[in-house]
Design brief:
It is a single chain. This protein is globular. By secondary structure, it is an alpha/beta fold. Strand 5, helix 3 and strand 6 form a beta-alpha-beta unit. The strands form five sheets. It has an eight-stranded mixed sheet with strand order 3-4-6-5-7-8-10-11, with helices on both faces. The chain has a two-stranded antiparallel ribbon with strand order 1-2.
Amino acid sequence: GAGAWTRPDECGPDECGPDECGPDECGPDEYGGVMADARTTRYCDEEVSYAGVLGENLAIRSANPINYHQAITDPDGCEPVEIDGKLFVPPAEAGAGDGSGRPTVIVVPGSLGVGPNHERHAETLVEHGFVVFVLDPFGARAVASTYENQTAYSFAASAFDVLAAVRELAQRPEVDAARIAAQGHSRGGAAVLMASCRRLADPILGADHGLAATYAVYPWCGQQFLDPSVGPTRVRAIIGERDEWCSVQEAQGQINAMRAGGADASIRIVEAAMHSFDRLEQPSLLADAAIAPNAPTVMVANDGAMIDPTTGTPDPALTDWDVFVAAAKRGWAVKGASIGGVGDEPNIFQADMLAFHEQLRT
């Protein structure tokens, strides 16, 4: 989940994980098998097929801004990084012609990187005729996961990745540049929501380019633009009623702010569901998970400066690490959260996902 926090009085960002064990030290009894999802090889080094379609490695020229202020005011001056992913192009429908651009979905993973649930959703979308790009933000950055340390790279960089992928995919003949959607999970959900906002998209892509649609899956909404204008981008969030990692109220607030600004934005709260309810596994407690779902929302000014929740003052120098440490020191960090799907929840998710993306065809 994207709500993990490191306790500043115990360790620095690279010194320790939740309590005494990291992802390679705790067994499935403590982590419910979740940490086993972390890939041991880079996604780009694997030969992957979904629905019989072999994935093509695609490099994406992205960046590592230190915060949203740098991403907005100096996008070309951010540290460059070339990330990657795999593009899956299903056979063209009869009569469509091989050269016609088609609706495309970017799948953006959460804190464990590309996992079985993301791959399953990608396969489902390919089966339904969508071009799919599965983004791997971790491999090129030598990050195994951000489960223990959400500041391994900035949330602004995560959103930059999404926009960089849009820019690259728009050049592909198989892709209709006017019908690119992004589907992000947890930390990826935060990324796609922020990438939808014109305050960030305009300086990176230009005012006439952006996402056609955004599907934010149990998103972390702890950082939000004061001006959440998304232009014509259609937005939907889906989150479990009992999500312990991400705040349902923050997700409601962000979607309603977008709607108040004129956006076609909606949210679905799945009754009794927990975080990652799309996973095909019973819910399990991550007892040592450090989270802070009730910490104050950090608002982001028009120039990208984060606003200190306690003073109301924008500070262009503030980073994720600064605000996470401040919130933890104020006692917002807690331990323990559950993830997993129950009963028909994964099917509920799949139906909602397909219904949302089918609108790209109209």
